[in-house]
What we know:
This protein folds into three domains: about 1-20 and about 145-230, Glucose Oxidase, domain 1 (3-Layer(bba) Sandwich); about 35-140, Orthogonal Bundle (Enzyme I, Chain A, domain 2); about 260-570, Phosphoenolpyruvate-binding domains (TIM Barrel), CATH 3.20.20.60. Helices cover about 45% and strands about 15% of the residues. The protein contains 22 helices and 16 strands. The protein is globular, with a radius of gyration of 25 Å.
Amino acid sequence: MKIYGVGAAEGIGIGVAKVVREQSVEVIKKNIPDIETEVKNFMEILEITKAETEEMSQTLEKNASAKEAEILFGHIMLMSDPMLVDEIVNRIKNDMVCAEYAIDEVCNQYAAAFASMDDELMQQRATDMHDIKLRLIKKILGIESTDLSKLPYGSILVAKDLTPSMTAGLNPENVLGIVTEFGGKTSHSAILARALEIPAVVGLSDLPDDIKDDTDILIDGENGEVIILPNEEEKAEYEKKRNEFASNKELLKKYRELSSISKDGKRVEIAGNIGSPEDVNKVIENGGEGIGLFRTEFLFMDRDSMPSEEEQFESYKKVAVAMDGKPVIIRTLDIGGDKEIPYMGIQKDENPFLGYRAIRLCLDRKEDIYIPQLRALLRASAFGNIKIMLPLITSMDEIREAKALIETIKAEFDSKNIAYNKYIEVGIMIETAAASLLADIFAKEVDFFSIGTNDLIQYTMSVDRGNVKIAGLYSPFSPAVLRSIHRIITEGKKAGIMVGMCGEAAADPLLIPVLLSWGMDEFSMSASSILKSRQIISLCDSEALRTKVDKVLELATESEITNYLKKLTEEL
Protein backbone atom coordinates (compact mmCIF):
# COMPACT_ATOMS: atom_id res chain seq x y z
CA MET A 1 0.00 0.00 0.00
CA LYS A 2 1.55 3.32 -1.10
CA ILE A 3 0.42 6.58 0.49
CA TYR A 4 1.71 10.14 0.17
CA GLY A 5 2.42 12.89 2.66
CA VAL A 6 4.82 15.79 2.96
CA GLY A 7 8.50 14.99 2.50
CA ALA A 8 9.96 16.65 5.60
CA ALA A 9 13.52 15.24 5.78
CA GLU A 10 15.30 13.62 2.83
CA GLY A 11 16.64 10.09 2.79
CA ILE A 12 15.39 6.54 2.35
CA GLY A 13 14.11 4.58 5.33
CA ILE A 14 13.74 0.79 5.21
CA GLY A 15 12.67 -0.88 8.41
CA VAL A 16 9.83 -2.04 10.63
CA ALA A 17 7.15 0.04 12.30
CA LYS A 18 7.40 1.00 15.93
CA VAL A 19 4.03 2.52 16.70
CA VAL A 20 3.85 5.21 19.34
CA ARG A 21 0.35 5.70 20.67
CA GLU A 22 -0.10 8.65 22.95
CA GLN A 23 -0.96 7.41 26.41
CA SER A 24 -4.34 8.62 27.54
CA VAL A 25 -3.89 10.33 30.87
CA GLU A 26 -7.06 10.71 32.86
CA VAL A 27 -7.07 13.84 34.99
CA ILE A 28 -9.61 13.72 37.80
CA LYS A 29 -10.57 16.80 39.77
CA LYS A 30 -9.71 16.07 43.39
CA ASN A 31 -9.98 18.36 46.38
CA ILE A 32 -6.77 18.66 48.36
CA PRO A 33 -6.83 19.63 52.04
CA ASP A 34 -3.05 20.17 52.34
CA ILE A 35 -2.63 22.99 49.82
CA GLU A 36 0.90 24.02 50.79
CA THR A 37 2.26 20.49 50.26
CA GLU A 38 0.49 20.28 46.88
CA VAL A 39 2.02 23.59 45.75
CA LYS A 40 5.43 22.49 46.99
CA ASN A 41 5.17 19.20 45.09
CA PHE A 42 4.14 21.03 41.91
CA MET A 43 7.07 23.44 42.14
CA GLU A 44 9.50 20.54 42.69
CA ILE A 45 8.11 18.65 39.67
CA LEU A 46 8.32 21.84 37.60
CA GLU A 47 12.00 22.33 38.44
CA ILE A 48 12.80 18.66 37.72
CA THR A 49 11.04 18.89 34.34
CA LYS A 50 12.89 22.11 33.47
CA ALA A 51 16.22 20.48 34.39
CA GLU A 52 15.40 17.44 32.21
CA THR A 53 14.47 19.75 29.34
CA GLU A 54 17.75 21.62 29.74
CA GLU A 55 19.61 18.30 29.53
CA MET A 56 17.63 17.33 26.40
CA SER A 57 18.42 20.73 24.90
CA GLN A 58 22.15 20.25 25.47
CA THR A 59 22.03 16.77 23.91
CA LEU A 60 20.16 18.14 20.92
CA GLU A 61 22.70 20.95 20.49
CA LYS A 62 25.43 18.31 20.43
CA ASN A 63 23.58 16.06 17.93
CA ALA A 64 22.24 18.88 15.76
CA SER A 65 22.94 22.55 16.49
CA ALA A 66 21.99 25.48 18.70
CA LYS A 67 19.26 26.48 16.26
CA GLU A 68 17.37 23.22 16.85
CA ALA A 69 18.07 23.29 20.59
CA GLU A 70 16.21 26.62 20.66
CA ILE A 71 12.93 24.68 20.26
CA LEU A 72 13.42 23.03 23.65
CA PHE A 73 14.72 26.29 25.09
CA GLY A 74 11.27 27.61 24.17
CA HIS A 75 9.76 24.92 26.42
CA ILE A 76 11.94 26.07 29.31
CA MET A 77 10.83 29.66 28.72
CA LEU A 78 7.17 28.62 28.79
CA MET A 79 7.68 26.69 32.05
CA SER A 80 9.50 29.71 33.50
CA ASP A 81 6.74 32.15 32.61
CA PRO A 82 5.69 33.69 35.97
CA MET A 83 2.15 34.28 34.73
CA LEU A 84 1.68 30.61 33.78
CA VAL A 85 3.20 29.33 37.02
CA ASP A 86 1.21 31.79 39.16
CA GLU A 87 -2.04 30.82 37.46
CA ILE A 88 -1.43 27.13 38.20
CA VAL A 89 -0.46 27.85 41.83
CA ASN A 90 -3.46 30.15 42.31
CA ARG A 91 -5.77 27.53 40.83
CA ILE A 92 -4.46 24.97 43.36
CA LYS A 93 -4.82 27.42 46.26
CA ASN A 94 -8.10 29.10 45.40
CA ASP A 95 -9.97 26.03 44.17
CA MET A 96 -8.21 23.61 46.55
CA VAL A 97 -7.64 21.19 43.68
CA CYS A 98 -4.88 18.72 42.86
CA ALA A 99 -1.87 19.96 40.88
CA GLU A 100 -2.54 17.79 37.82
CA TYR A 101 -6.04 19.24 37.45
CA ALA A 102 -4.76 22.81 37.78
CA ILE A 103 -2.02 22.11 35.20
CA ASP A 104 -4.52 20.58 32.79
CA GLU A 105 -6.95 23.49 33.07
CA VAL A 106 -4.41 26.31 32.80
CA CYS A 107 -2.25 24.72 30.07
CA ASN A 108 -5.35 23.96 27.98
CA GLN A 109 -6.35 27.63 28.21
CA TYR A 110 -2.91 28.75 27.06
CA ALA A 111 -2.84 26.17 24.26
CA ALA A 112 -6.26 27.29 23.03
CA ALA A 113 -5.10 30.92 23.00
CA PHE A 114 -1.98 30.01 20.99
CA ALA A 115 -3.98 27.84 18.57
CA SER A 116 -6.41 30.69 17.84
CA MET A 117 -3.66 33.07 16.69
CA ASP A 118 -3.16 33.80 13.01
CA ASP A 119 0.60 33.37 13.24
CA GLU A 120 1.55 29.73 12.52
CA LEU A 121 4.72 30.07 14.60
CA MET A 122 2.58 31.02 17.59
CA GLN A 123 0.24 28.12 16.78
CA GLN A 124 3.27 25.85 17.16
CA ARG A 125 3.30 26.99 20.79
CA ALA A 126 -0.03 25.20 21.28
CA THR A 127 1.72 21.90 20.46
CA ASP A 128 4.57 22.88 22.77
CA MET A 129 2.13 23.67 25.58
CA HIS A 130 0.38 20.28 25.21
CA ASP A 131 3.80 18.62 25.29
CA ILE A 132 4.73 20.43 28.51
CA LYS A 133 1.33 19.74 30.08
CA LEU A 134 1.54 16.00 29.40
CA ARG A 135 5.08 15.72 30.75
CA LEU A 136 4.20 17.56 33.98
CA ILE A 137 1.01 15.57 34.59
CA LYS A 138 2.70 12.21 33.91
CA LYS A 139 5.48 13.06 36.32
CA ILE A 140 3.01 14.07 39.03
CA LEU A 141 0.98 10.88 38.54
CA GLY A 142 4.11 8.71 38.37
CA ILE A 143 3.42 7.58 34.80
CA GLU A 144 6.50 6.68 32.80
CA SER A 145 6.86 8.55 29.50
CA THR A 146 7.70 6.53 26.39
CA ASP A 147 11.49 6.35 26.10
CA LEU A 148 12.19 6.58 22.37
CA SER A 149 15.94 6.66 22.94
CA LYS A 150 15.90 2.87 23.41
CA LEU A 151 14.20 1.93 20.13
CA PRO A 152 16.09 -0.90 18.38
CA TYR A 153 18.04 -0.56 15.15
CA GLY A 154 15.83 -0.59 12.06
CA SER A 155 12.89 1.24 13.61
CA ILE A 156 10.52 3.35 11.53
CA LEU A 157 8.69 5.47 14.07
CA VAL A 158 4.94 5.73 13.35
CA ALA A 159 2.76 8.15 15.30
CA LYS A 160 -0.19 10.51 15.01
CA ASP A 161 2.24 13.27 15.86
CA LEU A 162 5.59 13.62 17.57
CA THR A 163 6.19 16.23 20.21
CA PRO A 164 9.52 18.08 20.23
CA SER A 165 10.53 16.38 23.49
CA MET A 166 9.90 12.94 21.94
CA THR A 167 11.80 13.76 18.74
CA ALA A 168 14.75 15.23 20.61
CA GLY A 169 15.23 11.92 22.43
CA LEU A 170 15.55 9.80 19.29
CA ASN A 171 18.75 7.93 18.55
CA PRO A 172 19.43 8.67 14.85
CA GLU A 173 21.62 5.56 14.60
CA ASN A 174 18.68 3.28 15.37
CA VAL A 175 15.68 5.18 14.02
CA LEU A 176 15.74 4.95 10.23
CA GLY A 177 12.59 6.94 9.52
CA ILE A 178 9.66 8.90 10.92
CA VAL A 179 6.04 8.74 9.73
CA THR A 180 3.32 10.94 11.24
CA GLU A 181 -0.31 11.67 10.55
CA PHE A 182 -0.04 15.32 11.50
CA GLY A 183 2.57 18.01 11.01
CA GLY A 184 4.05 19.97 8.13
CA LYS A 185 7.47 20.78 6.76
CA THR A 186 7.85 23.65 9.23
CA SER A 187 6.61 21.77 12.32
CA HIS A 188 9.09 21.48 15.15
CA SER A 189 9.29 17.71 14.76
CA ALA A 190 10.11 18.06 11.03
CA ILE A 191 12.83 20.61 11.80
CA LEU A 192 14.36 18.27 14.38
CA ALA A 193 14.18 15.28 12.01
CA ARG A 194 16.16 17.22 9.39
CA ALA A 195 18.71 18.28 11.95
CA LEU A 196 19.16 14.68 13.11
CA GLU A 197 19.25 13.50 9.46
CA ILE A 198 16.39 11.04 9.97
CA PRO A 199 14.18 10.60 6.85
CA ALA A 200 10.67 11.80 7.62
CA VAL A 201 7.26 11.94 5.95
CA VAL A 202 4.58 13.92 7.79
CA GLY A 203 0.97 15.00 7.21
CA LEU A 204 -0.27 11.53 6.15
CA SER A 205 -4.01 12.06 6.55
CA ASP A 206 -4.75 8.56 5.22
CA LEU A 207 -2.34 6.77 7.55
CA PRO A 208 -4.10 3.52 8.60
CA ASP A 209 -5.02 3.25 12.28
CA ASP A 210 -4.32 -0.47 12.44
CA ILE A 211 -0.58 -0.47 11.65
CA LYS A 212 1.04 -2.91 14.04
CA ASP A 213 4.54 -3.03 15.48
CA ASP A 214 7.11 -4.76 13.25
CA THR A 215 5.11 -4.15 10.04
CA ASP A 216 7.51 -3.67 7.10
CA ILE A 217 7.61 -0.03 5.97
CA LEU A 218 9.54 1.92 3.31
CA ILE A 219 9.75 5.73 3.24
CA ASP A 220 11.15 8.29 0.83
CA GLY A 221 11.67 11.47 2.84
CA GLU A 222 12.30 13.63 -0.21
CA ASN A 223 9.26 12.68 -2.29
CA GLY A 224 6.89 12.07 0.64
CA GLU A 225 6.21 8.39 -0.19
CA VAL A 226 5.38 5.70 2.36
CA ILE A 227 4.84 2.04 1.43
CA ILE A 228 3.25 -0.22 4.04
CA LEU A 229 3.73 -3.99 3.65
CA PRO A 230 5.82 -3.61 0.48
CA ASN A 231 6.16 -6.44 -2.01
CA GLU A 232 9.52 -7.82 -3.07
CA GLU A 233 9.74 -5.57 -6.13
CA GLU A 234 9.14 -2.45 -4.02
CA LYS A 235 11.70 -3.58 -1.45
CA ALA A 236 14.29 -4.04 -4.21
CA GLU A 237 13.48 -0.61 -5.65
CA TYR A 238 13.90 1.11 -2.27
CA GLU A 239 17.06 -0.84 -1.51
CA LYS A 240 18.46 0.54 -4.74
CA LYS A 241 17.30 4.06 -3.82
CA ARG A 242 18.92 3.77 -0.41
CA ASN A 243 22.20 2.55 -1.88
CA GLU A 244 22.19 5.41 -4.38
CA PHE A 245 21.49 7.91 -1.59
CA ALA A 246 24.32 6.43 0.53
CA SER A 247 26.68 6.34 -2.49
CA ASN A 248 25.94 9.97 -3.29
CA LYS A 249 26.55 10.89 0.33
CA GLU A 250 29.89 9.05 0.27
CA LEU A 251 30.78 10.60 -3.07
CA LEU A 252 30.26 14.05 -1.62
CA LYS A 253 33.08 13.52 0.90
CA LYS A 254 35.66 14.17 -1.82
CA TYR A 255 34.37 17.75 -2.00
CA ARG A 256 35.51 18.47 1.57
CA GLU A 257 39.01 19.39 0.49
CA LEU A 258 38.03 21.03 -2.81
CA SER A 259 37.41 24.69 -3.49
CA SER A 260 34.02 25.90 -4.66
CA ILE A 261 34.77 26.41 -8.36
CA SER A 262 32.35 26.17 -11.29
CA LYS A 263 33.10 24.25 -14.46
CA ASP A 264 34.10 27.51 -16.19
CA GLY A 265 36.48 28.48 -13.38
CA LYS A 266 34.34 30.89 -11.38
CA ARG A 267 35.26 30.71 -7.70
CA VAL A 268 32.68 31.33 -4.99
CA GLU A 269 32.58 30.75 -1.26
CA ILE A 270 30.40 28.18 0.48
CA ALA A 271 30.03 29.02 4.15
CA GLY A 272 28.04 27.73 7.11
CA ASN A 273 25.28 29.17 9.27
CA ILE A 274 25.80 28.73 13.01
CA GLY A 275 24.05 29.59 16.27
CA SER A 276 26.86 28.98 18.76
CA PRO A 277 30.66 28.56 18.84
CA GLU A 278 30.16 24.80 19.17
CA ASP A 279 28.47 24.66 15.75
CA VAL A 280 31.75 25.70 14.07
CA ASN A 281 33.13 22.15 14.21
CA LYS A 282 30.43 20.83 11.86
CA VAL A 283 31.12 23.61 9.37
CA ILE A 284 34.84 22.79 9.41
CA GLU A 285 34.18 19.02 9.13
CA ASN A 286 32.08 19.66 6.01
CA GLY A 287 34.68 21.88 4.34
CA GLY A 288 33.03 25.24 5.01
CA GLU A 289 35.04 28.16 3.65
CA GLY A 290 33.77 30.58 6.24
CA ILE A 291 30.85 31.45 8.48
CA GLY A 292 28.21 33.30 6.49
CA LEU A 293 25.84 33.82 9.41
CA PHE A 294 26.51 33.62 13.14
CA ARG A 295 23.11 34.13 14.80
CA THR A 296 24.13 35.90 18.00
CA GLU A 297 20.65 35.75 19.59
CA PHE A 298 21.41 32.23 20.82
CA LEU A 299 24.06 33.69 23.16
CA PHE A 300 21.28 35.69 24.82
CA MET A 301 18.91 32.75 25.25
CA ASP A 302 18.79 29.96 27.83
CA ARG A 303 19.75 32.33 30.63
CA ASP A 304 18.11 34.82 32.97
CA SER A 305 20.32 37.86 32.33
CA MET A 306 22.16 39.61 29.52
CA PRO A 307 25.52 38.12 28.47
CA SER A 308 28.32 40.51 29.42
CA GLU A 309 30.63 42.13 26.89
CA GLU A 310 33.36 39.74 28.07
CA GLU A 311 31.21 36.64 27.55
CA GLN A 312 30.29 37.78 24.06
CA PHE A 313 33.90 38.63 23.25
CA GLU A 314 35.02 35.12 24.21
CA SER A 315 32.33 33.52 22.02
CA TYR A 316 33.13 35.65 18.97
CA LYS A 317 36.87 35.19 19.49
CA LYS A 318 36.45 31.40 19.72
CA VAL A 319 34.72 31.28 16.32
CA ALA A 320 37.24 33.65 14.70
CA VAL A 321 40.20 31.60 15.95
CA ALA A 322 38.60 28.29 14.91
CA MET A 323 38.06 29.58 11.36
CA ASP A 324 41.74 30.57 11.16
CA GLY A 325 41.51 33.66 8.96
CA LYS A 326 38.46 32.57 6.97
CA PRO A 327 35.61 35.11 6.95
CA VAL A 328 33.20 35.07 9.88
CA ILE A 329 30.07 37.17 9.34
CA ILE A 330 28.42 37.87 12.69
CA ARG A 331 24.87 39.23 12.70
CA THR A 332 24.14 41.67 15.47
CA LEU A 333 21.30 40.76 17.79
CA ASP A 334 18.06 39.86 16.02
CA ILE A 335 15.36 39.33 18.60
CA GLY A 336 11.68 40.18 18.53
CA GLY A 337 9.40 38.59 15.96
CA ASP A 338 9.29 34.90 16.91
CA LYS A 339 12.21 35.16 19.34
CA GLU A 340 11.32 36.23 22.87
CA ILE A 341 13.78 36.75 25.72
CA PRO A 342 11.79 37.38 28.94
CA TYR A 343 14.53 39.09 30.98
CA MET A 344 14.80 41.87 28.37
CA GLY A 345 11.31 43.05 29.25
CA ILE A 346 10.21 43.63 25.67
CA GLN A 347 6.48 44.26 25.39
CA LYS A 348 4.76 41.88 22.99
CA ASP A 349 3.77 43.42 19.67
CA GLU A 350 0.42 42.71 18.08
CA ASN A 351 2.31 41.96 14.85
CA PRO A 352 5.81 40.98 16.04
CA PHE A 353 7.38 40.49 12.59
CA LEU A 354 6.54 44.08 11.69
CA GLY A 355 7.34 45.52 15.08
CA TYR A 356 10.03 46.28 17.62
CA ARG A 357 12.80 43.86 16.63
CA ALA A 358 16.37 43.45 15.33
CA ILE A 359 18.12 46.74 14.41
CA ARG A 360 15.12 48.77 15.62
CA LEU A 361 15.39 47.37 19.12
CA CYS A 362 19.18 47.56 19.23
CA LEU A 363 19.40 51.20 18.15
CA ASP A 364 16.75 52.07 20.72
CA ARG A 365 18.61 50.25 23.50
CA LYS A 366 22.18 51.20 22.69
CA GLU A 367 23.59 51.34 26.20
CA ASP A 368 22.50 47.99 27.62
CA ILE A 369 22.33 45.89 24.42
CA TYR A 370 24.01 47.27 21.33
CA ILE A 371 27.18 49.04 22.46
CA PRO A 372 28.38 46.07 24.58
CA GLN A 373 27.83 43.76 21.59
CA LEU A 374 29.60 46.05 19.13
CA ARG A 375 32.53 46.46 21.56
CA ALA A 376 32.80 42.67 21.91
CA LEU A 377 32.71 42.23 18.13
CA LEU A 378 35.41 44.83 17.52
CA ARG A 379 37.69 43.37 20.21
CA ALA A 380 37.23 39.86 18.77
CA SER A 381 38.10 41.15 15.28
CA ALA A 382 41.74 41.30 16.37
CA PHE A 383 41.75 37.48 16.39
CA GLY A 384 40.35 36.70 12.95
CA ASN A 385 38.45 37.85 9.89
CA ILE A 386 35.25 39.02 11.57
CA LYS A 387 32.67 41.04 9.64
CA ILE A 388 29.67 42.78 11.22
CA MET A 389 26.21 42.33 9.69
CA LEU A 390 23.17 44.50 10.50
CA PRO A 391 19.75 42.76 10.33
CA LEU A 392 16.35 43.96 9.10
CA ILE A 393 17.60 47.17 7.52
CA THR A 394 14.90 49.31 5.91
CA SER A 395 16.50 52.78 5.80
CA MET A 396 19.82 54.54 5.33
CA ASP A 397 19.39 56.20 8.73
CA GLU A 398 19.67 52.79 10.44
CA ILE A 399 22.89 51.97 8.61
CA ARG A 400 24.48 55.34 9.36
CA GLU A 401 23.47 55.30 13.02
CA ALA A 402 24.95 51.80 13.54
CA LYS A 403 28.15 52.71 11.66
CA ALA A 404 28.48 55.91 13.75
CA LEU A 405 28.35 53.81 16.92
CA ILE A 406 31.08 51.55 15.54
CA GLU A 407 33.27 54.58 14.70
CA THR A 408 32.79 56.00 18.20
CA ILE A 409 33.91 52.71 19.75
CA LYS A 410 36.92 52.57 17.38
CA ALA A 411 37.97 56.06 18.50
CA GLU A 412 37.75 54.98 22.14
CA PHE A 413 39.78 51.84 21.44
CA ASP A 414 42.43 53.88 19.62
CA SER A 415 42.77 56.20 22.60
CA LYS A 416 43.20 53.23 24.95
CA ASN A 417 45.37 51.11 22.62
CA ILE A 418 42.80 48.31 22.52
CA ALA A 419 43.44 46.00 19.56
CA TYR A 420 40.85 45.55 16.82
CA ASN A 421 40.71 45.29 13.03
CA LYS A 422 40.69 48.92 11.86
CA TYR A 423 39.36 47.85 8.46
CA ILE A 424 36.56 45.62 9.73
CA GLU A 425 33.79 45.26 7.13
CA VAL A 426 30.22 46.25 7.94
CA GLY A 427 27.41 44.85 5.79
CA ILE A 428 23.67 44.38 5.90
CA MET A 429 21.14 41.61 5.56
CA ILE A 430 18.80 42.30 2.67
CA GLU A 431 15.56 40.78 3.88
CA THR A 432 12.90 43.42 3.32
CA ALA A 433 11.22 44.82 0.24
CA ALA A 434 12.51 48.27 1.27
CA ALA A 435 16.12 47.07 1.30
CA SER A 436 15.69 45.42 -2.08
CA LEU A 437 14.27 48.59 -3.63
CA LEU A 438 17.09 50.66 -2.11
CA ALA A 439 19.86 48.16 -2.93
CA ASP A 440 21.57 50.56 -5.34
CA ILE A 441 21.81 53.27 -2.66
CA PHE A 442 22.70 50.92 0.20
CA ALA A 443 25.47 49.31 -1.88
CA LYS A 444 27.39 52.60 -1.81
CA GLU A 445 27.30 52.71 1.99
CA VAL A 446 28.16 49.15 3.07
CA ASP A 447 30.89 46.58 2.44
CA PHE A 448 28.68 43.60 1.60
CA PHE A 449 25.13 42.30 1.19
CA SER A 450 23.78 39.03 2.53
CA ILE A 451 20.35 38.08 1.25
CA GLY A 452 18.16 36.61 4.00
CA THR A 453 15.64 34.75 1.89
CA ASN A 454 13.61 33.39 4.82
CA ASP A 455 12.35 36.88 5.63
CA LEU A 456 12.72 38.35 2.14
CA ILE A 457 10.11 35.87 0.86
CA GLN A 458 7.86 36.57 3.83
CA TYR A 459 7.94 40.33 3.42
CA THR A 460 7.89 40.39 -0.39
CA MET A 461 4.93 38.01 -0.65
CA SER A 462 3.13 39.20 2.52
CA VAL A 463 2.99 35.57 3.65
CA ASP A 464 3.56 34.10 7.10
CA ARG A 465 6.35 31.64 6.47
CA GLY A 466 4.98 29.17 9.03
CA ASN A 467 1.32 29.15 7.95
CA VAL A 468 0.54 25.84 6.24
CA LYS A 469 -2.73 27.25 4.83
CA ILE A 470 -0.79 29.58 2.54
CA ALA A 471 2.42 27.57 2.30
CA GLY A 472 2.16 27.56 -1.49
CA LEU A 473 2.87 31.30 -1.55
CA TYR A 474 6.06 30.95 0.47
CA SER A 475 8.66 30.08 -2.16
CA PRO A 476 11.99 31.45 -3.41
CA PHE A 477 10.72 30.62 -6.91
CA SER A 478 8.00 33.24 -6.82
CA PRO A 479 8.58 35.57 -9.78
CA ALA A 480 8.52 38.58 -7.44
CA VAL A 481 11.12 37.06 -5.11
CA LEU A 482 13.44 36.04 -7.96
CA ARG A 483 13.23 39.50 -9.51
CA SER A 484 14.09 40.97 -6.12
CA ILE A 485 17.09 38.65 -5.70
CA HIS A 486 18.29 39.47 -9.23
CA ARG A 487 18.10 43.20 -8.49
CA ILE A 488 20.02 42.85 -5.20
CA ILE A 489 22.85 40.86 -6.80
CA THR A 490 23.03 43.19 -9.82
CA GLU A 491 23.23 46.36 -7.71
CA GLY A 492 25.77 44.82 -5.36
CA LYS A 493 28.01 43.77 -8.24
CA LYS A 494 27.72 47.22 -9.87
CA ALA A 495 29.04 48.74 -6.65
CA GLY A 496 31.83 46.17 -6.43
CA ILE A 497 30.78 44.68 -3.09
CA MET A 498 30.44 41.03 -2.06
CA VAL A 499 26.92 39.62 -2.35
CA GLY A 500 26.00 36.49 -0.43
CA MET A 501 22.91 34.62 0.67
CA CYS A 502 22.34 33.13 4.12
CA GLY A 503 18.73 31.99 3.82
CA GLU A 504 17.72 28.38 3.21
CA ALA A 505 17.40 29.05 -0.54
CA ALA A 506 21.21 29.27 -0.78
CA ALA A 507 21.34 25.46 -0.71
CA ASP A 508 18.42 24.80 -3.06
CA PRO A 509 19.68 22.61 -5.95
CA LEU A 510 17.37 24.32 -8.44
CA LEU A 511 18.35 27.82 -7.36
CA ILE A 512 22.14 27.43 -7.08
CA PRO A 513 22.77 27.58 -10.87
CA VAL A 514 20.61 30.71 -11.07
CA LEU A 515 22.41 32.50 -8.24
CA LEU A 516 25.80 31.47 -9.61
CA SER A 517 25.02 32.80 -13.10
CA TRP A 518 23.70 36.06 -11.70
CA GLY A 519 27.04 36.62 -9.96
CA MET A 520 26.48 35.72 -6.32
CA ASP A 521 29.79 35.44 -4.44
CA GLU A 522 28.90 33.55 -1.28
CA PHE A 523 26.41 30.78 -0.41
CA SER A 524 25.85 30.23 3.32
CA MET A 525 23.84 27.28 4.64
CA SER A 526 23.56 24.54 7.26
CA ALA A 527 26.74 22.47 7.51
CA SER A 528 25.01 19.35 6.18
CA SER A 529 24.23 21.09 2.85
CA ILE A 530 27.75 22.35 2.07
CA LEU A 531 29.15 19.35 0.16
CA LYS A 532 26.05 18.82 -1.99
CA SER A 533 26.03 22.51 -2.93
CA ARG A 534 29.73 22.43 -3.81
CA GLN A 535 29.11 19.46 -6.09
CA ILE A 536 26.31 21.31 -7.90
CA ILE A 537 28.52 24.37 -8.41
CA SER A 538 31.30 22.20 -9.86
CA LEU A 539 28.85 20.95 -12.53
CA CYS A 540 27.75 24.44 -13.59
CA ASP A 541 29.16 26.51 -16.45
CA SER A 542 28.00 29.91 -15.22
CA GLU A 543 28.71 31.72 -18.48
CA ALA A 544 26.94 29.14 -20.63
CA LEU A 545 23.96 29.16 -18.24
CA ARG A 546 23.59 32.93 -18.09
CA THR A 547 21.23 33.39 -21.05
CA LYS A 548 19.18 30.33 -20.13
CA VAL A 549 18.90 31.37 -16.50
CA ASP A 550 17.78 34.91 -17.31
CA LYS A 551 14.68 33.43 -18.92
CA VAL A 552 13.21 32.89 -15.44
CA LEU A 553 12.76 36.67 -15.21
CA GLU A 554 10.30 36.46 -18.10
CA LEU A 555 8.17 33.66 -16.62
CA ALA A 556 4.91 34.55 -14.90
CA THR A 557 4.28 31.79 -12.35
CA GLU A 558 6.18 29.76 -9.78
CA SER A 559 5.24 26.47 -11.48
CA GLU A 560 6.55 27.72 -14.83
CA ILE A 561 9.83 28.68 -13.16
CA THR A 562 10.33 25.43 -11.23
CA ASN A 563 9.45 23.27 -14.26
CA TYR A 564 11.89 25.24 -16.39
CA LEU A 565 14.68 24.98 -13.80
CA LYS A 566 14.12 21.24 -13.31
CA LYS A 567 14.76 20.69 -17.02
CA LEU A 568 17.76 23.01 -16.89
CA THR A 569 19.39 21.20 -13.94
CA GLU A 570 18.82 17.80 -15.57
CA GLU A 571 21.16 18.96 -18.31
CA LEU A 572 24.03 19.64 -15.87
